Amino acid sequence: METEVKSPGQLIKALLKERGWEQKLLAHILDIDEGDVSRLINDRKEVDAPLALLLEEVFMVPAECFMELQKSFDLAKARIIAQPDPKRATRAQLFGGLPVSEMIKRGWIFASDLKDERVEPELSRFFGANRIEDIEVLPHAAKKTEVNVDATPSQLAWLYRVRQVASGMMTPRYSSASLEAAIQKLNSLRVSAEAIAKVPRILMEAGIRFVIVEALPGSKIDGVCFWLDEQKPVIGMTLRFDRIDNFWFVLRHECEHVRLGHGRTEVMLDVDMEGQRSVQKEEVEANTAAAEFCVPQKMLHAFIARKAPFYHEHDILGFAKTIGVHPGLVAGQLRRHMGRYDLFGNHVVKVRSKITPNAFVDGWGNVAPVD
After folding, report:
1. DSSP assignment of 27-76, as one string?
2. Whether pTM exceeds 0.85
3. What interhelical angle do 86-97 and 153-167 show, nearest 10?
4. CA 335 – CA 346 distance, rounded (Å)
5. 347-354: long-range contacts at Cβ-Cβ below 8 A with a sequence spacing of 24 or more?
6. 228 CB-side CA count, 13 A
7. Tens digits of per-residue pLDDT, 65-108?
8. Which of 148, 246, 286, 337 pairs as cysteine with 253 (C-beta 3.0–4.6 A)?
């Protein structure tokens, strides 16, 4: 058939012409009203599957051909009728990436549920955007926070919450000397899980805004370091692993970022620190300082050389007492060294309940006050 057809009606009309048939004849063959044939030819009657099979028998044209033309014709009509909404794709990206329901539950945005008309303006407010199209988690948004990793929407949402909480805090002026003094004070706290309660005040007195925000599901964030106005350092933590060894390692890691001035121009977002071994220079430096803080590494390696592959309870307790740290820090460093996080679980005690009463906390049922 030479003539290009774009609808099932055009195809039927062409086939009738090719055979020299009148509509009345086709109506007789199909055992339908002549009016129905007229409607078919003028595309006012749809060719469904049973009719397509009848036409296949009559014209020796595959039923699929009629069905494909009908589908294409219906879609073309729908495109003409449909009202395009340029925001629809934006909403799909936004709601598909952000854990909006969790943000509502946490009190980060004020809405009753996803259908609440306040959700979109509230998301714009949360991310500091004038329009929903400008929210940073969208690929086309012009404003982007410089982050040291490719952050997911959930991770960016967590980061924005830390920034919100930290922005409302008041601390003395920060100096490198105040941080060095704070690190020395933190050294003395490593011997006891209960002593962790003093951490927030020590950091606050050093001019560091310390914030604990519960991680969003699947975000795998451990901590973050960034600066407000390049003068006010912020350390955020999730405590997603409620263990004494993880707490001290992540905290000292973030303190090292602050000490070296990391995070002033690029947010140092630390993700899945136990699952990955970073080669980024800043992260290697922070990891080295954190490991040394938990257990002096030369002493750890000497201990491993003497005791491996069997580490008895009295060995861990004795070594911890010798270097003046909680046994959980020794256990944690051994676990990291061996890649065996199932060992020494009795030493890696929980600490969240020790620190949260004295810290700025958002999560676990608490909503931090934010302007």
Report:
1. HHHHTS-HHHHHHHHTT-S---HHHHHHHHHHH---HHHHHHHHHHHHHH
2. no
3. 80
4. 13
5. 347/316, 348/243, 348/244, 348/245, 348/246, 349/193, 349/243, 349/244, 350/242, 350/243, 350/244, 351/193, 351/196, 351/239, 351/242, 351/243, 351/244, 351/247, 352/239, 352/242, 354/193, 354/194, 354/196, 354/197
6. 22
7. 999 999 999 999 998 888 777 778 888 888 889 999 999 999 99
8. 286
pLDDT tens digits for range 333-370: 999 889 888 899 899 999 999 999 999 999 999 998 88
In whole angstroms, give the CA distance from residue 116 to residue 107. 14
Q: Which CATH superfamily is domain 8-81 in?
A: lambda repressor-like DNA-binding domains (1.10.260.40)
Question: pLDDT by residue (tens digit) across 148-196?
Answer: 899 999 999 999 999 999 999 999 999 999 999 999 999 999 999 999 9
| Structure-token match 């601390």, residue found | 171
